[in-house]
Amino acid sequence: MPEVFVTTSDQLPEGGRATVRAGKHEIGVIRAKGKLHAFLNLCPHQGGPVCAGLMIHKVEEIIAEDHTYQGMRFNEDVLHIVCPWHGWEFDIETGKCAGDGAVGLRRFTAVERDANVYVIV
Ligand code: FES
Fold first, then answer.
1. Residue 82: what are its φ and ψ, rounded to 5°?
2. DSSP the chain
3. CATH class of the domain defined by 3-120
4. Which protein residues touch ligand 1 with a CB less than 6 Å away?
5. Which of 28, 47, 9 has the alpha carbon at shortest distance from 92?
6. Taking the CB of the first residue and of the last residue of the chain, which one, N or C, has fewer CB atoms within 10 A?
């Protein structure tokens, strides 16, 4: 499978992102939680540039044992990327939509070698 150069490693720090065109695809590569994540930059909702979105930890509702609502909190273990068009959220690790796990981003493999980042297409 061909590799496409994305950027140099120093241009993609933690929390950084870069996009690259590979044939008819635009692919976003994000460094988050110490790993590289690569997705087709096309939201499954209406085609927004999802890889340009805000990254935010998953918001969870806190329900007590007596089933009373106790508010909300961020889950620091789960990071989401939020599509800038209408706010659909996707788990950065899996690409699955937070609201519907049957929907997700198309993933690619990103690799780092000799201080460069490549995506396999
Ligand atoms: S296009 Fe991404 S949320 Fe609508």
1. -110, 120
2. --EEEEEEGGGS-TT-EEEEEETTEEEEEEEETTEEEEEES--TTT---GGGSEEEEEEEEEE-TT--EEEEEEEEEEEEEE-TTT--EEETTT-BBSS-TT-BPPEEEEEEETTEEEEE-
3. mainly beta
4. 43, 45-48, 50, 83, 85-88
5. 28
6. N
Q: Ligand 1 centre from 60 Cα, in Å? A: 21
Ligand 1: nearest atom to the Cα of 87: 3
CA atoms of 75 and 29, how far apart (whole Å) = 23
Q: pLDDT in tens for each of the 121 residues of the chain?
A: 799 999 999 999 999 999 999 988 999 999 999 999 999 999 999 999 999 999 999 999 999 999 999 999 999 999 999 999 999 999 999 999 999 999 999 999 999 999 999 999 9
> Which atom belonging to ligand 1 lies closest to the Cα atom of 88?
3
